[in-house]
Design brief:
It is a single chain. By secondary structure, the protein is of the alpha+beta class. Helix content is 42%, strand content 14%. The protein is built from 20 helices and 13 strands. The strands form three sheets. Strands 1, 2, 3, 4, 7, 8, 9, 10 and 11 form a nine-stranded mixed beta sheet that branches. Strand 2, helix 2 and strand 3 form a beta-alpha-beta unit. The longest helix is centred in the first third of the chain and has 18 residues.
């Protein structure tokens, strides 16, 4: 079962045992006669989210008479299920909730009906989308997917501790290291971040650190750049931070959150999916710091966010995150598939975003008549699982503004250089996370970068 941790950790594709759960919309109340139907894969297997999606699907069927079979697919089963279904000539019509690397993998395998995708975006009006989201989901002028929403990866920090120490916001290598050194003690680590090898979250965390220092996976010619001076410097910085100012042992998506929630770290890197949990709205992931006993929202009230981190070798700070999208497969029932996605991005968009607003920041900001309709709505939607409340009840306006603005500046390795398929292929071996683990244990940054670069070059060669 997919957890909040794996949701934050993006799509980890692996060849594991096939697991698939499906639920079919009957269409009995919608007047569907079975003559028009589509199959929709949702990359999501949390029961509450699947059930909420089914309600939206049923509303679409009731309105249009088009039957939709909803199939829930776990993240770590996606690659195998896609391969086996393609081999059997049984791809779904629509796939939703897919990451940027997965969009590129679908495109590389020629599974996307790009004409149908482009027609869907045109029908919705491209001007109503984040321009950056459209760029990241396209290959040049060819649209590969309809971007739906995003989550943002950020550095979270204890504003109360920073203010007491007279520290500036940790938005650069220099200020992060200075704060980690100043605040590190026997009771509180200066920083906690992902270091576990073979973990996509480790690779994602480092990608944000690297982008801010001008460290790219590849250059504009497609040459691997992980062993460049900028990347070696990024490995050195993150190694220093995690070896000297963090907690012992390999850290992953769960342990980093747990340490910060317990009051054991002054800074950590996670995704916007943590916002409702930090506010005490989820029973199985509640803050446990000493102050949180009396006030479960203490950390939410005393946490600031940094969306873009700048390194000394970079031209500008960079923002890491993910955009999840819809796409239509080659050979699909294109007309009904387009109708379904158009519905999910209009009438169904509010209930879709409301499933988990902390991790579903809309990249379609509104409509032609109401340009900010969806972006204005987002901050008012109740978040949480066991308890529901708007995020604006807990966080300062500047925090939510930073989260909402994330999609505009989001950057990713390889995509803007036309090497998105390589980014997708890396998810199987995750060589960067191995390098990060090495430097976190005192390994030489140049050697770790060189080893990771050679592994990436080998993967790139296999794609030719």
């Amino acid at each position: 079962m997919k957890t909040r941790a794996t949701a934050a950790a993006m799509a980890v594709v692996g060849l594991t045992a096939l697991a698939l759960t499906g639920c079919t919309s009957s269409g009995d109340e919608g007047g569907g006669d079975g003559g028009d139907s589509i199959t929709f894969w949702l990359q999501e297997d949390l029961p509450d989210r699947v059930a909420a999606t089914q309600e939206i699907v049923d509303a679409f069927t009731e309105k249009t008479g088009i039957d939709v079979e909803l199939v829930s697919v776990a993240e770590d089963q996606f690659a195998q299920l896609l391969t086996s279904s393609a081999a059997a000539g049984d791809l779904p019509d629509v796939i939703g909730g897919i990451s940027l690397p997965q969009v590129r993998s679908l495109s590389a395998n020629e599974f996307v009906d790009t004409d149908a995708v482009a027609a869907t975006i045109d029908a919705l009006d491209p001007s109503t989308f984040s321009e950056n989201a459209l760029t990241l989901t396209s290959d040049g002028d060819t649209a590969l997917a309809v971007p739906s929403e995003s989550w943002t990866q950020m550095l979270f920090y204890r504003t109360d501790l920073f203010e007491a120490a007279g520290l500036d916001a940790p938005d650069s290598y220099e200020s992060i290291l200075a704060a980690a050194k100043e605040l590190d003690s026997d009771d509180v680590a200066g920083f906690v971040g992902a270091t576990a090898p073979g973990d996509a979250f480790t690779e994602q965390t480092f990608e944000q650190i690297a982008l801010g220092n001008g460290c790219e996976l590849v250059n504009k010619d497609g040459d691997v750049e992980l062993d460049s001076d900028a990347c070696v410097s990024a490995f050195e910085f993150y190694g220093d931070l995690t070896e000297n100012y963090s907690v012992p042992g390999a850290q992953d998506v769960d342990t980093t959150r747990a340490t910060y929630f317990a009051g054991g770290a002054a800074m950590f890197i996670w995704s916007s999916f943590v916002l409702d949990e930090m506010a005490g709205l989820r029973e199985d992931a509640k803050p446990s710091c000493a102050e949180c006993v009396a006030d479960p929202a203490f950390l939410a009230k005393n946490t600031g966010v940094v969306t873009s981190i700048a390194g000394p070798d970079g031209d500008a700070a960079a923002q890491f995150g993910e955009i999840t999208s819809w796409t239509i497969t080659e050979g699909a029932n294109a007309e009904s598939s387009q109708s379904f996605i158009e519905y999910m991005m209009s009438d169904g968009y509010e209930p879709w975003i409301a499933i988990a607003p902390e991790g579903k920041v809309p990249v379609r900001t509104g409509t032609a008549d109401e340009p900010t309709k969806f972006s204005d709505l987002w901050a008012t939607l109740p978040a949480g699982v066991d308890t529901k409340a708007p995020l604006s009840d807990f966080y300062a306006p500047e925090v939510l503004e930073a989260v909402a603005a994330g999609p505009q500046d989001l950057a990713r390795w390889g995509i803007t250089q036309g090497q998105g398929s390589l980014l997708g292929a890396l998810q199987g071996e995750l060589p960067v996370s191995t390098a990060v683990s090495d430097v976190a244990q005192g390994g030489d940054p140049a050697e770790a970068a060189a080893t990771a670069a050679e592994a990436v070059r080998s993967i790139a060669e296999s794609l030719k």
